Amino acid sequence: MSKEELKIGEVSKPRFEYRTFGQDFEEEAYTMSRLSMPVPEKVWERESEEIYILSRTNDINNTKIRDGKMDIKTFVQTVDGLEQWNPLMKGEFPMSKEMLEKEVFPAFQVEMPKLTKDTYTYEEFMAIIKANKDLAAVKVYKLRFGYMVNNTICEFGEVLINGAKVYTLNSESTEIEDIKKTMKDVGLTEFENINYLQAIKRVIGMIDKPLAN
Prior knowledge:
- By secondary structure, the protein is of the alpha+beta class.
- The protein has a domain at 16-88 and 134-204: Hypothetical Protein Pfu-838710-001 (Beta Barrel), CATH 2.40.320.10.
- It has five helices and ten strands.
- It has helices spanning 26-35, 97-108, 122-130, 176-186, 196-204; strands at 16-22, 46-55, 61-66, 69-79, 82-92, 95-96, 119-120, 135-149, 152-161, 164-173.
- A hairpin with a 2-residue loop joins strand 3 and strand 4.
């Protein structure tokens, strides 16, 4: 079977991903940029501001909000140390009580709040989050630079997590061996695989672990 040719910004079958976070990846980021094949101009440099909803009781569902739209991904499996995540739900505000009760709060794996309205605005939803001691809303700013190495979608990113600056590198593909080759070529094999959910929890102190460097 021939391998799927990945294209940045386009949907493919579920991918596997390696990602790491730390304070210094200058050499690795430079190597990634030099090894990259040409990529579309739209992914050269991208900025975004997002809100991640973190739950003390859940490490398998990744929830973020950007431009009033919610995106939840769920962990599927780990193969050779690489993680696979699939979309769980997408929604936008105002959001219905039914969606909050059946999809959103079950994903957080916390006690269901008492919802008395038919729909909730973003501000009303955030008030519920802030009132729950097991949940935290975290502001995340991303400045990302897109690359393509060994037919894997890669990026180097500067990330502010509630204002704390960290850096991230990643490689993702439907083909595990392509990711492993990219990790070796770029010089990432010694760095722990840390997803966004784990990185944010470590930075805000919800998990007592350091980043990769």
